[in-house]
Amino acid sequence: MTAIYKRELRSFFVTPMGYVFIAMFLAVSSFAFCTCTLLAGTDSSVSSYFTLELIIMALMTPLLTMRSFAEERKQKTEQLLLTAPVTLPGFVIAKFLACYTVFAITFLVTCINFPVMFAYLSDMNLFQYNSVTALGGCIALLLIGAVFISVGMMISALTENQLIAAVGTLTVLAALLAAAVANQYIGFAPLRAFLSWLSIYARFSNFSKGYFDIAALIYYASFAAVCIFITVRIYEKRRWS
Prior knowledge:
The protein has one domain. The protein has twelve helices and no strands. About 2% of the residues have low confidence. The radius of gyration is 19 Å and the shape is globular. Helix content is 79%, strand content 0%.
């Protein structure tokens, strides 16, 4: 498992993909941060920044996950990995951890912005220091990142075309984020209740407002675990087919 993790992590940096993801994520996140806080003056809003960051993550995550399994199928190398002395769960988890490591380190770099914001805006009396809001939002985004990556890997395991994997992942993530919006236009109560339960954004909105929602954290962790389990089952079926 460790060998596969190192191999996958290295693969992000022997091709431009890892550098492209890191550069684009940092650039777009920094622009969103400055727009919502430092340049907003009295209208500065951490909540707006977290919402934008959630959308940025949904757009960027497919860059990390689209090749995770699709490339293995295209290059005909997945059989070598499937016959390696590692369990299928270990094989999938190693790939997940490699993707998540790149995402988490990149995201944590963007969190350096918060001390700057608190110092700058507090001196100008434009912002009330609230470390709990920032910490809660960052923890929630890290867990949502795990959800997005697990969804992307699951989609990638279904195809050998990286473009299809990327578009499919983006479509599913957009649907998960849009569930809260669509809920307002649905009159059927049971469906509305289901969409409210499924919605990633509805649960995240509590964090963006400064409320630390333990139930939401458990939901995100469970969602990621289910997607990883489904990916394992996909490969288990493929191994014996």
